[in-house]
Structure formats: C-alpha cells, structure tokens
Specification:
The chain has 457 residues and is of the alpha+beta class. Helices cover 30% and strands 24% of the residues. Its EC number is 3.5.1.28.
Length: 457
C-alpha cells in the first residue's frame, strides 16, 4: 500500500512538472479584431469554439499550471469585444477560459514557437463577423483641388485627344463642351512600423520603436491632409499589429499613389547614428547592415503574431514585375528627395538611397520608401526621437520630399468630357458622363526617363 501511495505521488509530481506555466496574458484591440496572447513556458494543445445566447468564446488549454493561470487571467486588462473573462478546471485537467464578447466573432487561433525575446505563445484572434467598411484608418477629407492647382504642381499637360462620333464632334464645336480633370486627391499611404505585440527596436532608456513610428506617422498624416489635393491614410492608427502583407494590401485597396513606411534604425553598437532611406532591392541588399536590417524588419510577423503560411509566396513574380516597370525608379526619386530633406535636420547614415528586401515595399505598382528616421539604440538619437519637436521636424522633412516628388510626377487622373450643352457655360451631365483615362507625362531630366503613366497600373 505504501509503495502504491508513493507511486501516485510521483505520478502527480510528474504531471505538475510537465504543466506549462502561464507567464503573461495580453489583449490588443484593432479596428477589426481583438487579439489575446498567452505567453507560456512550453507548447500546449488547445481548442477554441463559440457559444451564443449570450455570445461567448471558449478556449480549452491543456496542461497549464493553475496558480499561474489564476494570477494572470484575473488581472488581465479587458479590451475590444471582451467584456468579461473567467476560467475553471475541466475534469480532464485542462484549463477552460471563457470570454464573454459584446458581439459575434469568428475566432482564429494558432501557436508561435519561441522567437527572440518571446517564448511559446498561443494567439487567439477574435475577428468581427461584419468587418469594418475599410481596414485603412480614415482621415479627414482634403481640401478640393482648385482649377489652377495642377499648374502649380506640374506644367499644364497637352490637351487630351478624345475620339467621338462625327455628329457629336460637330455639336461639340458649336456648344464647346467642358473638359476638366476630376478632383481625385493624391493618396499617400503612411505606414507606422511595428505595433501591438511587436515593439520593434527598444532604446537604452526603454523608448519603443512602435511608439515613435506611430507618433511621427500621425504628424505626417496631419501635414499631408493640410495640403490642397492630398489625402493621407494610415495602415494603423493605434497600438496593434498589422501583418506586413496586409499593410501593402491596405495601400493598394485605397489606390495609394505613394507608400511611406516610418521606422527607427537599430544596431548593437550605440555609436551608430544617422538617417537612412530604403527602397526595395530585387537583387540583394546594398550593404551587410541593410541585409541585417531587412531580416530584422521582415521577422516582425513572427514577433507580431502572424502565421508562417501568411508569407508572400509570389515574391519572385512581384520582383520581376518591379524590374520591368518604372515603380523602382520612381521610388528612388522619392527616396532621394526625402533623403535630401532629412539631411537638413540629422546626419545621414548613407548619403545615397539604400536597397534591401523589405516586405512592406513589395507593392509592384506603388512607389514605396522606408524611412529609418534615426538610431533608437543611440542614446542621443533616442532622446531626439522621443521629442515632439524633433518628431515634427521629421514629418515636415518627409512632406518636403513628397511635395518635391509630385513636382515631377503626377498620378493618372480621370478626365470628364461633358456632353454638348446649349448653355453658355459647359456642364457635366451627371447621368452618363464619359470617362477618358489620360496618362500625364513626367518632366524629363538627365537622370531619368520615366515612361508616362507607368508609375501606376
């Protein structure tokens, strides 16, 4: 009998030793989902399902230490759709976590292996059943383009040639129908790097890259929206993570004319300093540091909590397309202008635009740049990056580069050709206006020869 009791005790001890410890529980809220992240000492098995009347999400996790579960689940700060959280032990020893939610959701869960500073993680995303109308963060409408505005940006283009039936053409001569550019604003997608589960690089005093990049991005957005005929959209406007591919998709969804990603540089050497601007490299990084930096940034999906299968398997096709289009050259033009402006407020790490395989720069039809504002791992530059005044200077310098770019490039616009009218002033027939796509040419320069209209597809 004594031997039997000892055996039972040993088995119990073995079971307790194998139970994973819950080391933290975090919730993140984004416009379209709520994320729960369980930090664990070991990998666990889990199952997730939903109940209704009322709406609930149930998470069963095997082999979790009960004391650690009690500590963190009771103290978790509720966010997003989660209104209440409770837990209990199942008969089979598993821990059951029940989430009461404010509306129906589709749960998605996956495990992440240890990566960098993070150990084993269980991620549960509560995705809204009815998604938001747009994942891109809305921004105030820009001021309308005045009739003379295009002339201030570029020389007036030659009148477009419009082919119309002969009878209609004769009527047009008599009534002088109006032809005008539609008031479509220039759209700039502003991407604040990292966010949520992924803090990015961290400075000596604890300043996080995700906070600095968001602060500068918000300032840049405000400045852009103050410009007549320009509109900014953000890939994220809060402390939550957006996957690298999703950032590009959001820019394409709003038909962005430019993509600007804001980051902070980092290296293990605290003496490294300066600003750098990157564009995509189809053939490899321009330096060892550029290669290291791209690897760090592209691993953000692992840190931020994105499944491996969400990676881009069409990279080769995208790069081939890039090499055959003017997007790369346009990106270089934008990057050079930004680098020149940023060099007025900070030392430059390199005096030329750098290239590396950043995932967020892979939109084949949108000129894209990634700005490494300064080294957050440098004590002096970390102090500057945390300063609102310096953040504003950074944003203003980026805007200067953007405005300079659009003095040479203009995105495709629609031209509305009004139907004949007997009135002295032409009017647009709203029922069926005819739309003609016109590709406006870029100023030619000795340094480049961009094909007209090729910067957008």
């Amino acid at each position: 009998m004594r031997r039997f009791l000892i055996l039972i005790a040993l088995l119990s001890t073995s079971h307790l030793a194998s139970a994973a410890e819950l080391r933290d529980l975090r919730l993140w809220d984004s416009p379209e989902s709520t994320r729960l992240v369980f930090d664990l000492s070991d990998e666990v098995q889990h199952k997730v399902f939903t109940l209704n009347n009322p709406d609930r999400v149930v998470i069963d996790i095997t082999s979790v230490d009960k004391k650690s579960a009690t500590d963190f689940i009771n103290k978790a700060a509720l966010k997003g759709v989660v209104t209440k959280m409770r837990y209990g032990a199942r008969d089979d020893g598993a821990t059951r976590v029940v989430l009461e939610v404010s509306k129906p959701v589709n749960p998605k869960s996956f495990s992440i292996q240890p990566n960098g500073a993070y150990g084993h993680r269980l991620v549960v995303d509560l995705i809204d059943v009815v998604p938001a109308t747009s994942a891109v963060v809305p921004t105030p409408a820009p001021q309308p383009i005045a009739p003379a505005a295009p002339a201030k940006i570029i020389p007036a283009p030659p009148p477009p040639v419009v082919v119309v039936p002969q009878a209609q053409a004769q009527a047009a001569v008599m009534t002088k129908p109006g032809i005008r550019l539609t008031e479509k604003p220039i759209v700039i997608a502003v991407d604040a790097g990292h966010g949520g589960e992924d803090p990015g690089a961290i400075g000596p005093t604890g300043v996080q890259e995700k906070e600095v990049s968001l602060a500068i991005a918000r300032r840049l957005v405000r400045l852009i929206n103050e410009q007549p005929g320009m509109k900014a959209v953000m890939t994220r406007d809060g402390d939550y993570y957006v996957g690298l591919r999703e950032r590009v998709q959001r820019a394409r969804k709003v038909q962005a004319d430019l993509f600007v990603s804001v980051h902070c540089n980092a290296l293990h050497r605290p003496d490294m300093h300066g600003t750098a601007v990157y564009v995509l490299s189809p053939r490899g990084a321009t330096s060892e540091h550029a290669r290291w930096l791209a690897n760090q940034e592209n691993s953000a999906d692992l840190v931020g909590g994105i499944e491996i299968q969400d990676k881009d398997h069409d990279l080769a096709a995208v790069l081939i397309d890039l090499s055959q289009s003017a997007t790369m050259e346009a990106s270089f033009d934008l990057g050079s202008r930004m680098l020149s402006s940023l060099g007025q407020i900070n030392n430059l790490q390199k005096d030329q635009v750098q290239q590396a395989g950043f995932a967020v720069l892979k939109a084949p039809d949108i000129p894209s740049v990634l700005v490494e504002t300064a080294f957050i791992t440098n004590p002096e530059e970390e102090r500057q990056l945390a300063s609102p005044d310096y953040q504003q200077q950074m944003a203003e310098s980026m805007l200067s580069g953007i405005k300079g770019y659009f003095q040479s490039y203009r995105p495709q616009q629609q031209v509305v050709v009004n139907e004949p009218s007997t009135k002295s002033e032409p009017t647009v027939r709203k029922a069926k206006p005819r739309i003609v796509e016109v590709k406006l040419k870029r100023k030619t320069s000795k340094k480049s020869s961009i094909r007209s209209g090729s910067a957008r597809s």
